[in-house]
Design brief:
The protein is mainly α and 69 residues long. Helix content is 46%, strand content 0%. It starts with a helix and ends with a helix.
């Protein structure tokens, strides 16, 4: 299985998307760590139908805590 098989990112235009190169998830993770963000695949694992506008650590924590209620 390669990273393309399980990638849930819908932003196929992103140059970091694993379909754009042969480096798997590494470029996406590097970019997200540099900007204090979490890759969208983590959000996709817990979110419902809501549209997200940012992917910061705080946003992920709020999303997860909201799912615990």
């Amino acid at each position: 299985m390669n990273s393309i098989d399980f990638c849930t990112c819908a932003d196929h235009d992103c140059p970091m998307h694993p379909t754009k190169h042969d480096k798997g998830c590494t470029p996406c993770i590097e970019k997200n760590l540099r900007f204090g963000e979490i890759p969208s695949c983590f959000f996709n694992a817990v979110k419902g139908e809501e549209k997200l506008t940012s992917y910061y650590f705080e946003d992920f924590a709020k999303l997860v805590m909201g799912k615990l209620d």
